[in-house]
Recover the amino acids of this structure.
């Protein structure tokens, strides 16, 4: 059994507590309604995986500085803004097991809260002349938006092949983890080569993370019961794309027809899941995920050995061994 996230975070446990103070300070407002919502966001935010990537990346590239905390807060502010807006777009009522902002305060307020968080992130960088950090994180937000729109565009025709799939997840998911690692490195070193290496490390980790997410839909050992949620949402993920590539014309046609017109029929969705398993979609995706993990871990080897480097390695393994 692997390490828990708390055990992995041990080398930066004190810094994560300091980060909390920076993050709360960055969200300060004198508007009472907004302050209530900000406190709710702080209380319901996740496991601090993104700040952990920022802090550990800085630690292995020269050391954590005051700028590192601003970088971690910037990533968290801009990412939280995108999540709040995403929940409005998707009409989601829950986020990490808690009610979403739009569920509690309605869409208009949620959109304005997202805008406020975005502006706070921009101001945090401008006030301290952290333009290089702002450039890294803003580029990630752009890529995330483009990735979502590319996926929507392709989902209409269900014509996503492997190169398009990897382009979508590189932009939509991997760009954020890449920004965390590049941001952390950029607060500790001026070496562009080191910063780019850390950005690539984060990108490779993010791609592996997303493939793991795709595998959950097919009931891998961690979950047991197949979910079929991606099929219901007409998402073309790696296990499905590979299985379709192995199938004959008539089977391909049947699968596409189910996804397009019968994606809420439980028996037919189950048939698609069985089809993917039978055509080695799961095993192929697991091998591909491991390839990206190995490439990411290979990049870490160029850094000096330290508890923080070991923690980064374990954080990568945690992302692909997690049970959802």
């Amino acid at each position: 059994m692997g390490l828990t996230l708390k055990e992995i975070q041990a080398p930066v446990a004190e810094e994560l507590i300091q980060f909390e103070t920076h993050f709360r300070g960055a969200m300060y407002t004198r508007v009472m309604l907004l302050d209530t919502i900000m406190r709710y966001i702080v209380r319901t935010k996740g496991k601090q995986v993104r700040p952990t990537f920022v802090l550990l990346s800085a630690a292995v590239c020269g050391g954590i500085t005051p700028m590192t905390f601003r970088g971690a807060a910037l990533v968290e502010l801009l990412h939280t803004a995108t999540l709040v807006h995403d929940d409005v777009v998707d009409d989601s009522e829950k986020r990490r097991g808690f009610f979403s902002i739009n569920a509690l305060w309605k869409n208009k307020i949620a959109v304005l809260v997202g805008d406020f968080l975005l502006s706070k992130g921009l101001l945090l960088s401008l006030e301290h002349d952290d333009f290089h950090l702002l450039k890294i994180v803003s580029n990630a937000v752009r890529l995330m938006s483009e990735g979502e729109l590319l996926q929507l565009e392709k989902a209409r025709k269900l014509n996503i092949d492997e190169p398009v799939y990897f382009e979508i997840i590189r932009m939509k998911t991997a760009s954020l983890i890449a920004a965390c690692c590049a941001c952390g490195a950029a607060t500790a070193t001026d070496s562009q080569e080191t910063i780019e290496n850390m950005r690539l490390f984060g990108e490779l980790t993010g791609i592996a993370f997303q493939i793991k997410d795709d595998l959950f839909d097919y009931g891998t050992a961690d979950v047991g019961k197949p979910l079929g949620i991606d099929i219901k949402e007409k998402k073309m993920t790696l296990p499905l794309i590979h299985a379709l590539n192995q199938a004959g014309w008539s089977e391909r046609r049947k699968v596409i027809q189910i996804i397009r017109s019968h994606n809420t029929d439980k028996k037919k969705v189950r048939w698609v899941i069985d089809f993917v398993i039978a055509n080695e979609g799961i095993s192929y995706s697991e091998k591909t995920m491991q390839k990206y993990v190995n490439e990411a871990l290979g990049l870490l080897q160029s850094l000096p050995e330290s508890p923080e480097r070991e923690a980064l390695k374990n954080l990568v393994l945690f992302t692909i061994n997690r049970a959802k």
